[in-house]
Amino acid sequence: SNSVSFASLKKQLNIIANQQSIRVTTQQGALIMANFMTEQLDGDMKRQEKVKNGEMTQREADEESDKWESEEWEKRWSSLQSKVKIAFAKYHAVTLVMRLYEKIAAKYYDEVRMDKLTMDAYSASLKVSTKGENKSQVVNTMFYTTFWANLIAFMADYSVHQAILFYGYYIYIKDRRKKRSAEGKEDEEEEEGFNGALATSMLKKSTQLAISRGFGLFCTSIGGGVGTVVWPGWGAILFGNMGDSVGSVILDDGTSNAAKK
Questions:
Q1: Whether residue 4 has pLDDT greater than 50
Q2: Over 80: is that where the pLDDT of 96 sits?
Q3: Short-list 82, 62, 58, CA closest to 70
Q4: 170: phi then psi, degrees, rounded to nearest 5
Q5: 155 to each of 13, 20, 61, 66, 162, how far by Cα in Å?
Q6: Contact assessment for residue 150 and residue 217, using Cβ atoms and an 8 Å cutoff
């Protein structure tokens, strides 16, 4: 029985590892693609405006567009490996915070609620698909199952990125004060105005981050429901991760930019 338990545990760990690998790689790939297409469209519009104003010919615009596309495409995808490594580092930080939140939640909620909060979406998807419900019922059931199963994970993800955001502002303020001190600038009125603007900026980014993570959870839940209908088990994971990626692209909150501040 011990060998069976070990085999079952090993299988679950492999599933979790594969889930997170898919999630991280899919999300980073989707962000690269979305940013590339956005900048490509913006560049094409500007070039067409120049053609319209007679500043360049259509042939020159097409050649410039082809050159930009070939250079940027290779450059951006070559950075995928480093982006995935950073994302995995964030993932491990999120996992630690998630375990902490689960421990706290266990002190306040009963086993029924904790079972929902720690449900394995993969296993739940397979179970729901065998109940014989129609497609709309399956999507509805898996939407709520995926929502509760990912709630703590998204809260942990938000907390980590919020900490990164705060740390970025802290470093910026520290460097600015050091630079002003070296230059001998001690204008208190100017400093108060700057601090007010900085606080507003930080609050805005924090709000955007919270909205985006909430929207990402919603999209993940929809993906879990649709994925169960399409491909019970792995479909819930794949479509759920795609939903999260889509949510991050639609509301680019700072989960990909927080560290750049």
A1: no
A2: yes
A3: 62
A4: -60, -45
A5: 22, 16, 46, 42, 10
A6: yes
Please state the φ and ψ torsions of residue 118, each to the nearest 5 degrees.
-115, 15
Cα 154 to Cα 210: distance, rounded to the nearest angstrom: 10
Q: In the predicted model, is pLDDT for residue 14 greater than 70?
A: no
Q: Is the pLDDT of residue 80 over 60?
A: yes
Cα-Cα-Cα-Cα dihedral sign, residues 106, 108, 112, 116 = negative
Give the separation between CA 134 and CA 157, rounded to whole angstroms. Answer: 33
Instruction: Tell me the residue ranges of DSSP E strands in the chain.
Output: none
Structure-block tokens of residue 13: 């760990």
Type of residue found at 117: L
Hey, what amino acid is at 70?
Answer: S
Residue 130 token pair: 């065998």
Alpha-carbon Rg for the chain in angstroms: 23
